[in-house]
Design the sequence.
């Protein structure tokens, strides 16, 4: 993760712009939102139909995966509404010889330098992210990927990402600054532990970002579980550049969600409960005002 090669950066760009009819099903099964341009949690219909293959996820425009059924809508567990998205990755899926990947993205929904947004999202690890005792490797659950698909430009490793680590932590990764090439290391790269990566529970994250190439950039994040209020002060807070400039071009970001990891000889499932983008904390926090369901379909106490 911390030392990706230029070849991996090139692969990331290729996957970011990859859209194929074999993996995309334009469907209104999953709810999307004009502000977020993303799967927001829940279903537009009252019940799932068939097996709920969900490659396009409403407004999402592309998917990077080996098998279409790796990304599906499920009724249980779910964070809000009637659906969550079940993402599965197996050894050799979607990446190169060093990575595994099942993700969905929307390069059409971008956030730019100078904008300020509040993001609300939730996910559940179906099992521990890494083998017990493992010390190496990386795993991205959600990333705000820097790129301009129309111009064929990629920022390489994302300026903002939610990761799980082999040591059992949820980490917020922040990058920023200018670099000559997508494969170069960003001048600013910080790894901020947010919470323990406990499996089989919903992890709620409220993230406040002022996107900036300068010192006024801001990232704040709160972590909680369904039924537990967020604290007034953030669990992590950092200032400074959080936008990437590559070859002199300031790159916007767009949402990419799922599983992207260093190669592991094991299957992993992650449930994603949705993503909102709003201009205020109060509006974003409404995402969490819903009854969460666990893997047995039971209501999570307090939610």
Sequence:
């Amino acid at each position: 993760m911390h030392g990706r090669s230029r070849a991996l950066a090139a692969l990331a760009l290729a996957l970011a712009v990859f859209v194929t009819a074999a993996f995309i099903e334009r469907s209104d099964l999953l709810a999307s939102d004009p502000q977020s341009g993303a799967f927001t949690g829940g279903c537009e219909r009252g019940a799932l139909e068939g097996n709920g293959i969900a490659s396009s996820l409403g407004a999402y425009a592309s998917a990077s995966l080996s098998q279409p059924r790796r990304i599906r809508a499920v009724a249980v567990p779910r964070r809000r509404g009637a659906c969550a998205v079940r993402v599965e990755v197996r050894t050799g899926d979607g990446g190169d010889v060093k990575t595994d990947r099942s993700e969905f993205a929307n390069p059409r929904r971008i956030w730019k330098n100078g904008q300020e947004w509040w993001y609300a999202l939730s996910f559940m690890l179906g099992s521990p992210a890494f083998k017990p005792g493992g010390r190496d490797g990386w795993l991205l659950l959600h990333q705000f990927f820097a790129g301009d698909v129309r111009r064929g430009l990629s920022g390489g490793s994302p300026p903002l990402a939610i990761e799980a680590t082999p040591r059992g932590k949820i980490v917020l990764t922040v990058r920023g600054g200018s670099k000559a090439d997508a494969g170069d290391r960003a001048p600013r790269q910080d790894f901020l532990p947010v919470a323990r990566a406990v499996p089989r529970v919903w992890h709620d994250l409220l993230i406040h970002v002022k996107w900036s190439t300068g010192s006024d950039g801001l990232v704040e994040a709160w972590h909680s579980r369904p039924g537990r209020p967020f604290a007034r002060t953030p669990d992590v807070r950092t200032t400074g550049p959080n936008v990437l400039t590559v070859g002199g071009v300031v790159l916007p970001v767009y949402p990419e969600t799922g599983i992207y990891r260093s190669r592991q000889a094991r299957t992993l499932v992650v449930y994603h409960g949705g993503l909102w983008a709003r201009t205020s904390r109060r509006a974003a926090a409404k995402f969490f005002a819903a009854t969460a369901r666990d893997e047995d379909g039971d209501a999570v106490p307090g939610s």
